[in-house]
Amino acid sequence: MAILELADVSIAYGQRDAVKGISMQVSQGGITTLLGGNGAGKTTTLRAVSGLRPARAGTVTFDGRNITRVAAHRIVELGIAHCPEGRRVFPTLTVEENLTLGGFVHRSRPKEVKRTRDEAFELFPRLLERRSQLAGTLSGGEQQMLAIGRALMASPKLLLLDEPSLGLAPMLVQEIFRTIQEVNNRGVSVLLVEQNARQALRIADNAYVIETGRIRISGTAAELQGNEEVRAAYLGQAKQAAAAS
C-alpha cells in the first residue's frame, strides 16, 4: 500500500519543465530513495510533494487524499515533514528554539510540543547536551541532526529528506543513516533524496533513478544495486572493475 503517489507529475520553473510527467510511489512504512545527478529534478520533486513548488500537471496523492493544490502549511498538518538540503536551521536561535518552531502544528498543545521535543532529544542525545547553544555554532553533523529533529517535531507520517549526508564526515554519515533507519522503525515512511547512492540503496526498500526530469529506472533497492547501469553511474563499480583489469 502506498502512502504517497505521484501520477504523471510535471513541475515547471517559468516555461521550462524541470520534472516531466513522473510517476512514483512511497510504500506505507517503507523507505524509498530517489537517485539522480545534479539538476535531475530530485529536489524539485520533494518541493512539489511538500507544496513549495506546485505541480503544473499530474496528481500528488498522500494517504488517500489529493494534495496537488494544497498549501504547504496544510500539508505539514496532514502529516508530511520536509527536511531540506543544506539543513536551513535558524542560526541565531538555540537548539531548543529551533525544535520548538518545528512543533508549530502542536502550538495549542504544549504537552505535545514537550513530548515531541523529548523524543528528538532521545533520538539525538547530542542535541540535548547543546539545547541552549545557538544553532549557528553547531558542527555540520549536529546541524543535520537538528534539521531532522525539527522536521520530526511535526509528528509526520512521511518524512522527506533531501541530501542528509551532504558534506559530512564518513563517521557522521553512518550515524545519520542509522538514525533514518531508526525513524523508519518508529513507523515513519521516508522519501530519501541522497547523493550517497550506496548507502541509500542499502537502507531503502524501493528506489527510482531520475534523469533530466524523467524516471529512468525503478525497482526494489536490491534490483537497482544489481543493475549494471546504476552500478556504473552511481556506485562506481564499472570504474573499479576497469581499474582492476
Give a description of the structure.
By secondary structure, this protein is α/β, with parallel strands linked by helices. It has 2 domains: 2-79 and 156-244, P-loop containing nucleotide triphosphate hydrolases (Rossmann fold, 3-Layer(aba) Sandwich); 93-155, no CATH class. It is 40% helix and 26% strand. The chain contains 11 helices and 10 strands. It has helices at residues 42-49, 72-78, 95-102, 110-123, 125-129, 140-152, 170-185, 197-203, 221-225, 228-234, 237-244, and strands at 2-13, 16-27, 31-35, 57-62, 65-66, 80-83, 158-162, 189-193, 206-211, 214-220. Strands 6-7-8-3-9-10 form a 6-stranded mixed beta sheet, sandwiched between helices. Strand 4 (57-62) and strand 5 form a beta hairpin. Helix 3 (95-102) runs parallel beside helix 6. The radius of gyration is 18 Å and the shape is globular.
